Amino acid sequence: MNKKHYNPGKIWPIIKITVGLIKNNPQLLDYPELLKATLITNIEELNHPETCGNCGGSMVEYIFELDCIDALMLLTMGKEVRRRLNEGLDFTEANKVRVQKLDTQTYAMKSRTTKMSKLGLVAKLIGEKGRQVPGTWVITKRGFDALKGRRVPKSVRVWKGRIEERNEETITLSQAFDSYRKKVEQIIRRNKNSKADYRNYFEDYRQEEWYTIGGIHEGKLI
What we know:
Blueprint: H1 11-24, H2 32-42, E1 61-65, H3 68-86, H4 91-94, E2 97-98, H5 107-110, H6 113-118, E3 122-126, E4 132-139, H7 141-147, E5 152-153, E6 155-159, E7 162-166, E8 170-171, H8 173-189
Antiparallel strand pairs: 1-6, 2-4, 3-4, 5-8, 6-7
Helix pairs in contact: 1-2
């Protein structure tokens, strides 16, 4: 039988060094910034902000910002839900989207679901055993709000898969599409070719078409 073993980390050595520094210079207690600078000078592990001084784990945070591809993927998923509703499925069933089976304009769209889940627009479909139904996602209430033209958080800060902070700045799908449209038009004005031009794929977006469609699935926003 395997036994668990816990790595002690470096916190106690760091504490011992800190205590020694304060003993040699008690005034450090009155000047937190000076104490911090002294610790960084004396402890090599604290000189690397990209890693944890205690365990060496990554301290890198990621900022996920809603862009045109996310908005276009949400619109594509929404259209699939609407199609399934028109076939007679109830909302709960219609809102179970097999992403890999969607007819998307680019593979990059299908790879955005994790990012979109951090933004709170979609969530994994969890089955009876508490596991995700493979490749299946649902649009959350926030996602349908976005389709209806309502403002949603523009970005989120994520560390080790956990949401640390949602930016107070908000955005609408129309703004995401307009921002992309302007960038492409600027590229064209400079007589350059855009690597991708998705403008035609969201020209038919009308927020009023989504007023009667919406979900209550909040999802697990991790």
